[in-house]
Design goal:
Layout (H helix, E strand, L loop, with lengths): L3 H14 L3 H20 L5 E6 L4 E11 L10 E3 H7 L8 E5 L7 H28 L5 E9 L3 E5 L5 E5 L14 E12 L2 E7 L3 H11 L1 H4 L3 E9 L3 E8 L6 H6 L7 H6 L4 E6 L4 H8 L7 E5 L4 E6 L1 H8 L4 H10 L2 E6 L17 H9 L5 H5 L3 H7 L4 H16 L1
Parallel strand pairs: 2-3, 11-12, 14-15
Antiparallel strand pairs: 1-2, 2-4, 5-6, 5-8, 6-7, 8-9, 10-11, 13-14
Helix pairs in contact: 2-4, 9-11
C-alpha cells in the first residue's frame, strides 16, 4: 500500500495511546470515510478493511454496471466497457468492487488523513482523561509541580496529565518549587475546547474532610462521620463529627492523645487551627459548641430567619469572635445561623458605632475585628495589648481611649 508512514503509524497509536483494538479501528474508519466523502461526495458504497496490528488497509468501492452512455453518478455507477476492463465477463446490473488506492485520494488528502487521525486520537485521549478525572472530583490527588506562575501552579501527574492549582485554591502560607509533590482534591473538571481543564484545590473544605478520612482510621472505616467542615484556609477550621457507636468519643478519636492524630492534618494545611466538635441536631447545643472556646451564658434562636443572639461575659466575647472575626464567622457557617454576640451586665455601656463622628470607621472596624465593639470593652484592655492585637498605632489607640473616657466622665 502507498503512504507507508501512515499505515505503519497504526500500531504506534495503538501501543503508545493504549487504545483498544475496537476503538482504534472505529477511529481509523471514521477518518478514512471522511476523506472518501470529501473526494467522492458520499461514502456509503465503500468497504474499508483495516488490520491495525499488521498495518494493512484496503478500501473497496462498490458500483453497479450500466450501459455505456447511461452513467449518471460516477461514484455509484460504472459503464459496461469500464467494468469489462476490470473483469471481461461483467454484465449490466451486476456489482463491481474496485480497490481504491491511497494515491487516488491525492497527496493533500493523504496529509490531511494523518492530521485528522492524530486529532481524533488526541480527542479520544482527552475524552477518556476528562471522564477519568470527572469521576475523581472531590477525591485527594497528588501531582508534581512542573511550573510556578504568578497566579497558577502547573502540575503533572505520573501519567503526564496536566493539572492546575489556581491562586484562589492555594493556602496563603504555601510555598511552591518545581519538582515538589502537592496534595489537594480534584475541585472541578471542565472541557475547554477538546482539552480537559483539571482544577486542584487545597482550600476546599472537602480537602479537609478527605484528610480526616486518610489520617483517622475510624473516619475511614465509617465509625465516625464528618457531618460538616468549614475553613478559612491557612487560618482556622471547624469540623463537626458524629458516631453511631456510643462507646466512641468522636472528638477524642479525631484529635488523638495530645493532638497526635490531627497534627499531620494541621501540618498539611499550613498550621491551620482546627476545632473539632461533636455534631448534634439540637441547634442550641450545636451553636454553643461551635463558638468554642468561648463559654456561652445564654442563647436565643430565631428559627424563622436562622439568627441567634448569644450572651457572654465580657471576657468571653473576644474568644467567641476570635482573631479577625474568624471564630464567629466559622461558627455561623458551620451551623447555618447568623450569630450576634451580646455582653452581659453592660447596660450602661455605649456601642463603639456611636462614636463614628469622632472615630474613623476603619479604626472602629479594627477594634470590632478582635471582638471589642463597645466603649467599656476597649477601656478594660491594656493599651500595649491593643497595639499587639490590632494594626493600630499606639498614638491612635491613646486618642480613642481619651475620647471614650470623656464619654463616661461627663
Amino acid at each position: 500500500m502507498e503512504n507507508i508512514d501512515l499505515i505503519n503509524s497504526f500500531s504506534d497509536f495503538k501501543d503508545n495511546k493504549l487504545i483498544d483494538r475496537v476503538t482504534l479501528m472505529a477511529i481509523l474508519e471514521e477518518v478514512f470515510r471522511g476523506a472518501l466523502k470529501r473526494k467522492f461526495g458520499q461514502d456509503d458504497n465503500f468497504d474499508i478493511i483495516i488490520n491495525p496490528d499488521k498495518g494493512d488497509l484496503e478500501i473497496w468501492r462498490n458500483r453497479i454496471v450500466v450501459n455505456d452512455g447511461e452513467v449518471e453518478d460516477d461514484n455509484q455507477e460504472i459503464s459496461l466497457s469500464a467494468a469489462r476492463k476490470i473483469e471481461p465477463d461483467f454484465e449490466v446490473g451486476e456489482d463491481v468492487s474496485e480497490e481504491v488506492k491511497l494515491s487516488d485520494l491525492g497527496r493533500r488528502a493523504i496529509l490531511s488523513l494523518r492530521q485528522n487521525l492524530i486529532s481524533k486520537i488526541h480527542e479520544h485521549d482527552n475524552t477518556n482523561i476528562f471522564k477519568y478525572f470527572k469521576d475523581l472530583e472531590g477525591e485527594i490527588y497528588t501531582a508534581e509541580i512542573h511550573h510556578v506562575r504568578h497566579k497558577v501552579v502547573i502540575l503533572v501527574d505520573d501519567d503526564g496529565n496536566e493539572l492546575v492549582l489556581p491562586k484562589e485554591h492555594q493556602i496563603p502560607s504555601d510555598f511552591y518549587r518545581k519538582g515538589d509533590s502537592v496534595r489537594g482534591v480534584i475541585h472541578s473538571v471542565e472541557l475547554r475546547g477538546n482539552k480537559p481543564n483539571i482544577i486542584l484545590s487545597r482550600t476546599s473544605p472537602q480537602f479537609l474532610i478527605k484528610l480526616f478520612e486518610q489520617e483517622i482510621p475510624e473516619v475511614f472505616d465509617g465509625l465516625i462521620t464528618v457531618q460538616n467542615a468549614v475553613r478559612i484556609p491557612g487560618e482556622k477550621a471547624k469540623v463537626a463529627v458524629d458516631t453511631y457507636d456510643d462507646r466512641i468519643d468522636p472528638v477524642g478519636a479525631c484529635v488523638g492523645m495530645k493532638g497526635s492524630r490531627i497534627h499531620g492534618i494541621v501540618r498539611e494545611l499550613g498550621n491551620e487551627n482546627i476545632d473539632v466538635i461533636n455534631y448534634t441536631t439540637n441547634n442550641h447545643l450545636y451553636i454553643t459548641r461551635a463558638l468554642s472556646p468561648a463559654k456561652v451564658s445564654s442563647l436565643k434562636i430565631n428559627e424563622e430567619n436562622n439568627t441567634a443572639e448569644v450572651s457572654l461575659k465580657p471576657d468571653e466575647v473576644s474568644k467567641a469572635i476570635g482573631r479577625g472575626g474568624h471564630n464567629i464567622r466559622l461558627a455561623g457557617k458551620l451551623t447555618g445561623f447568623e450569630i450576634e454576640v451580646f455582653r452581659e451586665g453592660v447596660e450602661d455601656d455605649v456601642e463603639l458605632s456611636e462614636f463614628k463622628d469622632e472615630i474613623d470607621d476603619w479604626i472602629i472596624k479594627e477594634f470590632t475585628k478582635i471582638g471589642l465593639d463597645t466603649a467599656k470593652s476597649i477601656l478594660e484592655q491594656e493599651v500595649d495589648d491593643l497595639v499587639r492585637r490590632t494594626d493600630l498605632e499606639e498614638e491612635t489607640i491613646y486618642e480613642v481611649v481619651r475620647i471614650l473616657k470623656e464619654e463616661f466622665e461627663e
